[in-house]
Amino acid sequence: LYITLSLFLRVCQGVTGGVIDVVAFAVTTKLFPSNVALTTSIVETSLNCAIATSPYIGAELYENVNFLLAFIVPGAAIFVVFLTSIVCVKDVDCRKADTDGSSKGILTDP
């Protein structure tokens, strides 16, 4: 039962990770159609740097400070990124991102 449940949860994690990647690429392509390569490379570089450094930072916080701080620091970092993205993207008009002149919005099917 444990192996089956673990495998199921890992499959769910993989599917969600794939969906998040696709949605991130779709949104950046719609918002920045003239700089698709640059925005995609920034997203990928940031994600891979976070994946590479997170275990080390989490282990250092857990060993040297305390157990709770290993969860507080990533939560605070995510919150700061959330606030920064609101400030940076608040002036983007999603209707302008459509190339055909319609105002369907950014997350609609073509």
Q: What's the overall geometry?
A: extended
**Number of helical elements:** 3
Major β-sheet profile: none
What percent of residues adopt helix (DSSP H or I)? over 70%
Rounded to the nearest angstrom, the radius of gyration is 18 Å
As residue ranges, the low-confidence spans are: none
Helix/strand order = HHH
Class from secondary-structure proportions:
mainly alpha
Ordered list of secondary-structure elements with their pairings:
Layout lengths: L1 H30 L4 H29 L4 H21 L21
Helix pairs in contact: 1-2
Textual characterization of the structure:
The structure is a single chain. By secondary structure, the protein is mostly helical. 73% of the residues lie in helices and 0% in strands. The protein is built from three helices and no strands. The chain has helices at residues 2-31, 36-64, 69-89. The protein is extended and about 45 Å long. The termini are far apart.
Which structural traits does this protein have?
110 residues; 3 helices; mainly alpha
Give the structure's gist in a few sentences.
The chain is mainly α. The chain has 3 helices and no strands.
